[in-house]
Amino acid sequence: MEKRKLSFWEIWNMSFGFLGIQFGFALQGGFMSRIFQTLGAEKDAIPLLWIAAPLTGLIVQPIIGYLSDNTWHSRLGRRKPYFLLGAILSSITLFFVPYSPALWIAAGFLWILDASINISMEPFRALVADKLPDSQRSYGFVMQTLIIGIGTWIASNLPWLMTTLGISNEAAPGIIPMSVKIAFAIGGFVFLVSILYTIFTTKEYPPEDLEEFKKEKEDSRFIKDLFVSIKEMPSTMKKLGIIQFFSWFAFFTMWSLATPSLTEHVFKAPAPIEKNYNLEDSSQLAQFNEAGAKYQTAADSVGSAMGIYGLSSMGFALLLTFYTSRFRINRKYIHMFSLILGGIGFIIMKYIENPFYLNISFILIGISWGSILSMPYAMLSSSVNEKKMGMMMGLFNMFIVIPQIIAALGGINYVSKIFGNTAIAPMTLAGASLILAGLCNFLITEKKAISFQIE
User: Fold this and answer.
1) Which architecture characterizes domain 8-452 according to CATH?
2) Domain ranges for the chain
3) Cα gap 55→45, rounded to integer Å
4) Closest Cα partner for 309 from 187, 144, 151?
5) Which tens digit of pLDDT belongs to each residue from 16-65?
6) Are 413 and 239 in contact (CB under 8 A)?
7) What are the phi and psi torsion angles at 354 (to 5°)?
8) pLDDT tens sequence across 260-282
9) Which residues cross the membrane (predicted)?
10) What is the pLDDT of residues 352-393, one digit of tens each?
11) Is 217 helix (H, G, I), strand (E, B) or coil?
């Protein structure tokens, strides 16, 4: 079927649901470690607590991709039923996460939250390939990056904004501050509303031959299709997988350990560990509360600084959109240099004493994030069978979640020791990993994947 080119607003509408998805991811990425530490987790245990996120992605995304490939609802279409289901589950979970009374409950909520976000997110990637001709797919993924950048910046600043409005960012030992609770509630509301906006403003193309589609659906089997898809995986996808491995190892390191690393290294305000204080002693209780207050304030500042990478990725996407409206782009070299800049952003954190300069680090990291969210998918979508777009996007997710699982199971703790035993060592590791990811772009040689103009 010949697909017509869509207008700016049509692409905006079909991508707008990513605002809510990114609210969920930004609150999860920026503040789950803060919740874990508030509930008593020690720094070295945090990556393992995060293992829920990549494990659920590994399981959920190929299944949802397969199901959405084989779904057609007369009113909701192919991908939108999964947008809606994921949004409802994510919104409910976002509300309850900061009310976790114990560490194991918070870790359990992270499992549910990440699975729910993945239910919504995976079909959004496939929707771009479903609706846009090849000449507009880079444009579609860049548009998603724009909206993701907006969502990251706003959501990352929500706890800081709540504190600025007078809502307390302090609480009793083991209790999540009210500023964080309200931020997560707002995130849940935005998640649901933005997804509903896309559902109501976007129509999907029906199968060209509905009867043939139904027959193929009856004959399809998940396990069989999974192995066939793995066997048919194009070489471009495998090469991109290597780049994705090092890219997502770096960002998982940031999400899980930026808060403990930066509150200690830059702000000199590490989270107090309850077992190191005798809380029945009034003077030690006062010391614990003072240290806790400093940590919560520093964590607000780290979250706000992390929001800069969302803003930077949005600016990068805008620049890329304007440039590619007139000139051909080399996706390979754009991605390479973007990842290297992000790596430099992580590495210079080691030398930062004034918190203001964290903004420079996160601006550079945002450039790499903007590229990660658009260039690999643009290169991939030119190389796979459109009838299996959901399944192939789900399989591509393996190259995202496997490095995160390795990182969570001790990869960060062990490998970061190469860079010393300091609090900032994991951020240096993230920088080295991103630079290595950038250099791996030399593996990409297929011309169709490398160069295409957005129209």
Assistant:
1) Up-down Bundle (1.20)
2) 8-452
3) 17
4) 151
5) 988 998 899 889 877 888 899 888 888 788 888 888 777 777 777 777 77
6) no
7) -90, 120
8) 999 999 999 888 877 777 777 78
9) 12-36, 48-68, 80-97, 103-121, 141-162, 182-200, 240-258, 302-321, 333-352, 358-380, 392-412, 424-444
10) 989 899 999 999 999 998 888 778 877 776 666 666 666 677
11) helix
